[in-house]
Structures are given as C-alpha cells and as structure tokens.
Amino acid sequence: MAAEEEEEEEHVEELQFLDFTDMVQLTRGGCQVKAASLTRQRVTIEEVESGKRYDVFGHFHLTDPWWTVTARITCLKGKWHLEYYPSYSLRTRVKDERTILSLFFTKCGVHHQHQLWFWDSLPKTINLEFANLMEILQSRADVSKNKGEKDMVISIIAAINNSLAGQYMQNTLKFPHLMERLPSLLPRQFLHIMRSIPEKEVNNAEMNNEKQNESINNSMLEQLEQIIQTDVWKLGFNYLLRKEVKLVGCEATLEAFERSNLFRTIPELQQHALVIYDELKRVCWSKGHTFVDIKDLTGLRADKFSDESAWVSLEFLKSEKIIVREKTRVYLRRFYKYEKDIAMCIEKLVNKPPWIISLPVKEVLRRGLIPPKKERSSEQQDDNDDTTNPDADCASQSADDDLDSDQVKAATMMCENPVTVVSGKGGCGKTTVVSLIFKAAVNLQREVEEACKAFEMDQLTESDDTPADNIPIKPLEIRNRSILFTAPTGKAASLLKKKTQFDAYTLHQVMWSFYNAEKCKITGKPIDWMFSQVNVLIIDEGSLVSVQVLSSVLRMLMEYALLQKLIILGDVRQLPSIEPGNMLADMYNFHGIKWGIELLTNHRAESQLIIDNATKISEMGVSYKELEYDAVMCVGNGVTATIPTVDKRFIKVSLPRVYDRFALQDAIQILLKEGPGLKDHQNSQFIAFRRRDCDLINELCCKHYSKHSTKNHKNRIEFQNGDKVCCTKNGYVRDLLEQKKSEKKSEDEKEKKTRLCNGEVFFIGQDLTSIEGSKKTRSLYLDDLDERKVQVNYNEIMRECKLQHAWARTIHTFQGSEADTVVYIVGVAGRQNWQHIYTAVTRGRQRVYVITSEDQFIRAVKTRCPRRSTRLRELLQENLSKAKFTSANGESLSQQPPSQTVNQQQSSSTPARAPATFTIAHPNPIDSSPPTASGQAKGDFFAPHSDGEINEPRSETEPQRETSYSADLEFAQNYSWSSSSQELEDQDMAEDRKSPTAESIPSPQTSSGRDAFLAKSGDMSSQCCRSAPAASSPDSKRLNLTVDEMETPTKQSKVSLVDSPLGSMRLGLLKLEDVIPKQLFSK
C-alpha cells in the first residue's frame, strides 16, 4: 500500500469524559485510552488474486506495505471509497520478502550498517518471515560468541521492541483476532490499545515502571482477545470493559457491530440488549434526559424482537449493572450515579456545623457599589464622633435605599448558607456581589491577623524589654486557596478572574489537578493537592455545568478538601449543558430549602433595552410578545438598507420572508462595512445556530478584516497575521516564549507546557517560520489582547487545540462569553427555541443585532423548550427533607431554636478546624445591615464552627429569648438556611417554655493562640448580651468559674464602644477580657 494524506496529520486527544470514578480506577491500575480522529487518506491497494490496483479514499489505521487489508470499497463519481474501517493482518509469502523486511527495519529505526550486516550474515537456507523474525534474532543473539555481532543483534531487537511498528507487528502475531475485529469495533481507540509501551523513549530510572505498564497492557490484550472469541458483545458496554478488563473510556457502538457483520453472530438476548442500550444512550444525549420511560424502550425493532424479549433484555441489562431501573424509569448507570452523588454531597454539606462569614453586608456593598460622596474633614469627624449626627443617619439611610435589595439578600445568603444558588441576567451583578463579599472577608481576615501579630509584639516587648525593631515578624499565612472560583469553560474562567481579581480555574482543571496529583498508595488520598484547603467553591455560568462535572468536583472537595460552602451563579433561562442533566434548574427550583434567589435589577445603563427584550423573549414560550427595536434595517427585495446610528442598542436586520442565503450574505457585508460597533473585530462577535452559517460569516469576515480566504487552494485552513482564532478543545502546548526565558533551567522545567482552554480567543500577532538546516518550523504568536501572550508550534497547537477562525461561533460554543457588540443570525428556525435566542441576546453588553426574517423569528421564539427528564430535584427533596444539623456527639440540633443551636456550637470543646472564637467590635455599628440568621457571634472568616456540643443549663429568663428567636426565625425563613420547618421550631420553643433552664453563653477564654479571643458581640441594633459562662464540663477547655460569676443573660445597651483595632499596633482596642499571655499563640 502507498498512502497520501489528504490532511496534515491525525489529531490525537486525551479522553474528554473522565469522571471521579474513572480517575480512581486509573489510580488502581486501570488503562486510560486515547482517541484518535483518523485523517482521510488516499491509499493505493493491490488486490491479492488479480494484482489489480485501486486508489482508495478512506480512514486507514495502518498504511505500511507489510500489511494485508481486508475492506469493502465502492465507486462514487469515478473514485473508489472505503465503506467502513478495514481489518489488518501481516503479509505472508511475499515474492520480495527482503525488500519488505528492509522497509520494516527502517521504520523501526534499525541502523543502516546493522541492516547490511544482518542480511550479509543471514544464511540463504533460512526462510525469513514476520512470523519467525524475532525468534531468529533472539537465537542468533544467544549463540553468537562474537561480542560485536551479539551487540548488533541486541540493538536490532531493541529497536523493534521500542518502535510502534515493531509493537504492532508483534501484537498482530500474538492477538490475530484483535487485528481483525478491533479496528472496526473501536476505530478511534484501536492504535492506542495495540501499543505495548508509551510512544516516548524512557530512561533507565523509568524502565521498571514501563515494564510494569507493558505487563499490564499485555494482560489487557489477552483478555480482549478472549472476549472477541467468546463474548464479543461485551465490547458494547463500557461498564463491563472497565470491570473485567480495566479499560476506561471506550465501548463499541451498535453501528460498529452491524457494519462489521458481527451483530448477527451475537445471541438474541445480547442483540436486543445492545439495541435497547443504544436507544437509551441516543435519547439521553439528544434530549438531555438522565432517564427514559420504559415504554419507549420496549417496542424497538418490533419486526425482530417481541415485547417479552424486551423485558428479558432489560432484566439482563439490570442484572449486569449496565442500567438502573426504578419502576417505569430506566437510567444509564453513570447519570444515575452522578445525580445521586450530587444530592449526597449537598446533604453532607448542609448537615455540617453552620459556618457564618461575619460581615456587615450592607456596608461592604455600599462601599463597593455606590460612588463615594463628599466626605467630611477629619476634624469634623473627630468633633462629631461622640454625638448623634442626624445628617449622617439620613445619608446612611439614603445609601441603604440606593442598594439593590436582591443583592443584599444574595450577599447575606452567601455569608450564612451552606448552599446558595443565584440566578440573573447579565448585568445584574452576580459576580460583583460575590467578589465584594469575599474580598472583604479576605481583607478583614488579614487585618485581624496583623492586629494579633502586633499585639504579640507588644507583649514580647513589655516582657523581654526587646526593641520592637528587633522582633522577627513572620509573614502572614493567608489561606489564599480557601476560596475557589471556577467556571465551566476557559473563556468564562478568564472573564471571572478579570472581574473578581481572584484566581479562577475551569472545573476540568480542578479535576485534572486531582488526577495528576501524587496519591498515597494505601489510602489513595492526594498528596499536596493544590485545592486541598478549599472551604468555598464558587461556580460561575452554572447553566453550562453538567451533572457529571459537578458530581466529580463535589466528591473530590468533600472527600479530600475542607468544603463548607457552595455558591452557584448563573441564569436558569439560558441553555442548559449539552450533556444530559439540568443541574442549575434543578438546584434553583428546589423548594425544600430557600437557597435560591434571582437578581432582577439590571445595573448596566447601556444595556437596559437588551435586558427588557431578553425578558420578553423568556416569556414567549407561553405567549408571543413584540420586541422593542430602536432601529430596523431591511435587506433584500431591492430595498436600500438604512444604516442605524451609533446610539442604537437593539437593532433588527430584517431579511425576506423566504430564507435566502444571498440576502444573509448581503446583510453581513453591509454590517461589516458600515454597522456601528463592527469596525473593530476585537470587541464584536457574530453568533449563529448552524455551523454552515458560521462558515459563511467567517469567510466574509476573513476577507473583510484580514484580506484573505479561510482556506487555501488545497482546501486546507489558512491562518495569517491579524486573524481572530479560538481553541476548540482543551490542550497543553509548549510556550516558546517561556522556553527562551528558561534556557538555564532544568529539562523538566523546560518541558512544562501551557494549558489552552476550549473557547479561548486569540489574535495572531505574527506567523513565524524558522529554518534549521533543511527543516522548517512554523510557529504562531497569539495575543488575547488582555494579559495572555504565547508563541506556539503550529503543528502542535493544531493537534492539541484544533485552532479555528473565530469571527463567528455557534451559540453553544459562545455561551459563557460576552462581547460589546453581538450579531445573532437566526437563519432557519429548525430546532431553535426561545432559549437559543435569549442566550445569544444576553451575550451582548452594549449592542445587539438580530438578523432574521419575521416568520422564522416568530417560529423560533414560540417553540417551547423541551423538558428534560431528570431526578436531581427529587433526590434533593428526599435527602434534605429530613436533614438535620448534628453535633459532634451525634445529637440533633435541627429542632432547637437557631440562637440556642449556635451558642451551643460556639461552646464546643472539640473544634473541627480552627474554630471561630474572636470578633471585631466595629466603631460604628450599622443598624440597617441584616442580622445573622441565628444571632451567632462573628468569627474567623475562613474557619468553620466546631463540631462539638456541651449540654449546659438554660436561662430561666424566657421573655427576652423570645424576642431574639422571633427575629432570627423570621429572617432565617426568608433569606437563609433553615434546618427544619417553622412548625418544628415552634413546637420546640413551646417545649422550652414549659421547662425553663439557664442558657449558656461561651466563655471569653480558651487555650489556643489568637483564636482564643471572643469579643462581646451583639445584634445589629446596637444591643448585646452580657457574657454568662457556666461551669466547665470534664472535657471542656473553659476556665472553671464560680457560681457568683455567672449571670443571667439579658439584653442591654452596649457600653464603652471602642475604635476598631484594624491597622493598630495595640490589640487592646479589641474587646479582650482576661488575656493570659502565656496561653497566647501557644502551639
């Protein structure tokens, strides 16, 4: 065979759908399979019997002349084409065997001099073939007494063993059925499965591991060979391959069985099982369901299979644990487990001891959102510090009125709830609110630690008479990875980082960092995982997140990190993930616990018309509403187009009633030439529903902006300077700019690669070609016009990231991104519904064009969104309907009044991790800021409350408790997590009134470092409870107090408010009581 590639090279990609279970399987000896998208090649084939030659176009795995190919070919328009993937075997009884073997030696990398010596020394009586090649070489190495000759033979053997051609040849002799059947059953994984060792060369230090991998791979090939001979149907079920062969990430399709003529050789039970399984997968992936009604699976191929056979096949699939069946629902095993894992992790999260981030929410939002007005001079402030200022109170009230009440509620929920789901359109301030809250928390944490260190210095100075300048100061240990900002795509993560100033990662980066982290051989726990200290997980663009990804990330962070809070941001009206499931809608619409809130107010003045029209579009699934356009531009039918002015924000480009591709082309060209916002392609984006429309627009934009076509005369994609391009899949590439900077670094550091994410947009700054001898190397300098600049090898980035032009992108690929000006092409309505148009319209920040004909637009927006059959909401209802807070000793706290529950948790004797035991007395408490749901004392912002509980006598003064309970319960029911229903809490309060006891307030003293301080904190109405410590239990860390020192807790006006200690060298400004220096900061 002689081959000529029609494309440049094959694209190899890592497995894209590894979940948490797959990763665990791989760490325990499983085999990860890569998938290869084969190029279409023209191969010259010679028929064995007649000797006739054919030039055949098709996908060939192996094209070397020592292979025999068995394939079906058909003639179309005078050209021969391959019907399906062929099977392979080694050629035998070849006339010119020496020539074929010489080509084989060369492909294996055998030295030319060694080849000449081998052929000269080979006896003419030996009939050398591939079948006996390795045996002859090994025998000559064993009997040779000449050291030089023996070394040459060993060198030939090593070259064959370490080359891909040699591996394929030897595995073909060992496993002939694999070479015959596997190329057609698993065409994309075939080449990787047949490799015995990795493609790279290894050093001596890695040789043992590579030999172990080779042994594992040989065992896997033996098992596959046995399966093909006995139970070939097992290759159609991924679960069975992972269970029996430890082969992760591949399975044969029903089409592969049928086109390879293997389907009819399978028993009828397994045939019907494959048909049902294929239909279940098809429906789930095409419609987004996680389960299918059983009646939709029992009538398949009725002419061949009976209904009784269908029920038997379903029972067979269930017994093999391939599917899960519950009543009339049939689940794919994976998606059943994903939803169940999410519900289980959420249940564990809400049942953890409550962790409240104590912040003056309104003050934080006021400082971050409302522009500062003229402030009084410092002297005027000092004069009025101790007096009541009515003007200041009015100004504060006015500032509070300017705040968005929904944002205040959302911020409060983030601080208090274990789970918060925030929905809203673009411009409502979701990311702004979350960034302000956690920036304030981090800053306040830093200031408290600085104050504690300053106090320690003062104490050491007073006791040791050591000059303050000579006291060593340790650097602050802020847990900068406690807050994890994530997004489903690289572009969304980049935007999130830019908006929040926090490091942001894609969810796949979190998963792969876990997979690549070194694991403990006994427990499997990752060692030095970069996300092991995460307390808060924030997910942006939640509508794009699949149940598979969320379940994997939650399991990792729940089992191997310190997760305490989950915050999901998104828009429930946008398109859901293209994978099965409807995570954001199920989480938001769960009514068991009020953890969801919608931000309704738009805070972008320039996009108000866009938001108003988006709201109308979201309601069109029920009834059609006319959109409000501030300009209409008609194109086609001989009408002269009127170009809108710069001040127009929502513009309709009206096409003829009958869809005309030429009219669309004219509209695009007019907009490119004169349309406001489109002269600069850096801040504008075309979006379409169909790839065909994207290809047309990219061609027009490429000619307009870069003055060339998207493809050259060989029909290959063409890139030049100034082109707008994007990555269409995640990949790792070498950054040549970093390599130039690291010439003196180690080889490992040089080989460190840069991750480019799917959806990242770049502009080509330079198209460079370097010449070294006779070799030319092409590289591209890519700039995202923000912070990222990379120079990459052209072939590498095309292989790993599959670069494409990006002036126009489909709505699914652009979801999660934004642009100042967006142009959406509706085209033919087809399968579009209002969600597609809504998602596209909300991508525009300042201006939106809608190119459509009236009929197609009405048809699209009137189409209702198909309902996805999912179970996540039901599982949350089942798991959380009886959810209760529990203490460390297992006693339920959910039926206790909130303030009592928190107070008991504060008095815990066994902290879970760095318990919150100190607070800051603000100099000017803000009356209007919302109180905490439980009246809890404010504490360490990145430390959850302790798990333990101490049973203490309760207060006999009940009326004063009722006031705080009623306020707390009212707020908790409206805004934050409630551990049980209102009815249960009222019953408990009634029982408490019947048996009055003394309520305990935690002691201001503990024995651990700067976490040993508890300032007196009151409610937000400038009232506080006087501390009333009780006698300590045997396991308590409290100091023993006498009965005389105990007081009944009563509410009083706070006295002697002091200035904030933030930035001060004197920690005495904090409300500290009875500090014992020897206990301070003890380890």
TrEMBL record:
PANTHER family: DNA HELICASE B (PTHR43788:SF6), DNA2/NAM7 HELICASE FAMILY MEMBER (PTHR43788). GO terms for molecular function: ATP binding; single-stranded DNA helicase activity. Residues 370-401, 886-965, 977-1055 are annotated as: Disordered. Gene3D superfamilies: P-loop containing nucleotide triphosphate hydrolases. Residues 224-332 form the DNA helicase B winged helix domain. Residues 926-935, 997-1009 have a biased composition (Polar residues). The keyword Nucleus does not apply. One of its GO terms (biological process) is negative regulation of double-strand break repair via homologous recombination. Residues 805-851 form the UvrD-like helicase C-terminal domain. Residues 389-398, 894-911 have a biased composition (Low complexity). Residues 946-961 have a biased composition (Basic and acidic residues). Keywords: ATP-binding, Helicase, Hydrolase, Nucleotide-binding. InterPro entries: Coronavir_polyprotein_1ab, P-loop_NTPase, UvrD-like_helicase_C, WHD_HELB. It holds the Pfam family WHD_HELB. This is DNA helicase B.
